[in-house]
Request: fold
Amino acid sequence: MELALLHPPTPLLKRLSWFDWLFAVIVASSGLFALSRFGEFMDPYEKGILLAAIPSVAAFGWFWKSFRPLFIIVGAVSLFAISQYQGNLARMDEAFFLKYLISSQAAIMWMCALFGLATVTYWAGLLTRSEFTMKTATAMTWSAVTLGFIGLMVRWYESYLIGADVGHIPVSNLYEVFVLFCLITAMLYLYYEARYQTRQMGAFVLLVISAAVGFILWYALDRGAHEIQPLVPALKSWWMKLHVPANFIGYGSFSISAMLGAAYLLAQRGILASRLPKLEVIDDVMYKAIAIGFAFFTIATILGAMWAAEAWGGYWSWDPKETWALIVWLNYAAWLHIRLVKGLRGPMLAWWALGGLIVTTFAFLGVNMFLSGLHSYGTL
Reply:
């Protein structure tokens, strides 16, 4: 206690380096450039979101240093890709870099390939105890995230090349949100990997991302879902731009907790126990993933209710999607209550987290496949 009083924490602004401030300048410049270049396509709410994102992104980069190169590379490559179009969507099949690397669909396909390779590499590293192999898997995952975000940014621009009435932020249909799910889940995992200095959990977390990649490939190649289509009127709302990302931070976090629950149960039975982190570490990451996911899922549900009031005239209508969202919320609220209030730990909560993936998957995808309602625009 006395040492803490003698050496109080250094204020945040004094801990920032010149590169931290340079990053903040880059973020501010990028945001203001986007506002001046594309502001004519934005309504006042969207401009407000963009301006609010500037300090938020800068602060996030100060908090998580690894985010800074990601932001800079995605921004630089996306602008290069946009310049290659020269205002003509047909150049997607003509310009070399667009055709093979950084058009939206090419970048997303590279993302899918790299996530698949990263999954295999994580497992190879886990089974062989090879640190080099595990580092390679981490690099592949970062590369996949980078290309995925480039794909979404370029897809955003491509939608406006088709027509101003078609243009939309690429979090608006099932194909786009599955890509977003992969990216958010991978970024959350990469943060935990760096925070806990362990890569062994990646073998399990990348399995759920690879399952989503399989759906993306089927949905694109069999259903042609990668083709950009106009939005239905209900989706042309600024609420969507807040509701969907918050929702998928929740879904991604819950998916991570489920896969860590599986790792916990295997390790407890002596399977891969010597290769995985300690049970206490897995349990702690599982708890933090659910806590963060629950917070963002709660925010997303509130935003969704506000969106529903604007689109359909009421905050809650017991639509199947709304009902299952409530079931997901209650499931994880009960999980957190049992852990925080009752102090329960161990295999029961690991099984619960793993079972929660079934509930979450049905709320995310099953409702779209098997039930109809006000959210029927999201069907397969």
Summary: Residues 279-312 form the longest helix (34 residues). The chain is about 75% helix and 0% strand. Confidence is low (pLDDT under 50) at residues 1-5. The CA atoms of residues 29 and 54 lie 9 Å apart.
